[in-house]
Design a protein that fits this description.
The complex is a heterodimer of chains A (87) and B (121). Chain A has helices at 2-24, 28-53, 57-81. Chain A has 87 residues and is mainly alpha-helical. The chains are: A mainly alpha (87), B mainly alpha (121).
Chain lengths: 87, 121
């Protein structure tokens, strides 16, 4: 189980690096990139918790999180271009 | 601990380390485009490694099939999102780093901006 704690702490450190970029980023695209990356890291974290708990619905959570993160990224990039979401 | 669990945990460890280095690139690099390419490539590969490792460790069909599907999904969507973000950030007016060498999107970006301004008028 020590090994699981090591992997979880590495992933938590990556999440905090992303949070640093979200808080400190000079421009809006920096924050959007960090939000996208944070979503992908969290998908890995949820898969790790599926391994630890041995419950299959965590993988459903991972798939749903990846979907929502992708749609959010596309909406953010449209917003950065200065267009509406339905174009 | 049986053999497939050891192989799967090695996969998960490689994936976590890739994730960490990608996020370190997100913090350390100077420009939004550099940050985007470093973080997207490393984190996509790392998350795929973690998902495949989860499939190998558990070795039950209910988790393994969905984990492989989620890995394929991340493989397709993450570069697409990064491409859209790079395009959006260039069109929103973020300059390149002053030591950047080439910019092949410049002419096409001018065309796109002209098209949009024509639409709004």
């Amino acid at each position: 189980m020590t090994f699981i704690y090591f992997i979880a702490s590495v992933l938590a450190a990556s999440c905090f690096l992303c949070l640093y970029r979200i808080g400190h980023g000079p421009t809006a695209p920096d924050r959007s990139v960090a939000i996208d990356i944070l979503g992908t890291v969290v998908v890995g974290f949820v898969a790790l918790s599926a391994v630890v708990m041995r419950k299959d619905f965590y993988i459903n959570l991972a798939i749903a999180w990846a979907l929502v993160s992708f749609i959010g990224t596309l909406a953010l990039s449209k917003h950065l271009e200065g267009r509406r979401f339905d174009e | 601990m049986s053999n497939h669990e050891i192989v799967g945990y090695i996969f998960i460890c490689i994936g976590a380390i890739f994730d960490f280095f990608g996020c370190m690139g997100l913090v350390r690099l100077p420009d939004v485009y550099n940050r985007l390419q470093a973080a997207t490539k490393c984190v996509t590969l790392g998350t795929m490694f973690i998902l495949v490792g989860a499939a190998v460790v558990t070795a039950t069909p209910a988790i393994a099939i969905k984990a492989i599907l989620c890995a394929l999904f991340v493989l397709i969507t993450s570069p697409t999102g990064a491409h859209a973000l790079a395009r959006g950030s260039y069109l929103s007016g973020v300059k390149l780093w002053n030591k950047s060498v080439t910019n092949k999107f410049e002419e096409r970006a001018e065309e796109i901006k002209k098209t949009y301004s024509g639409e709004t008028k």
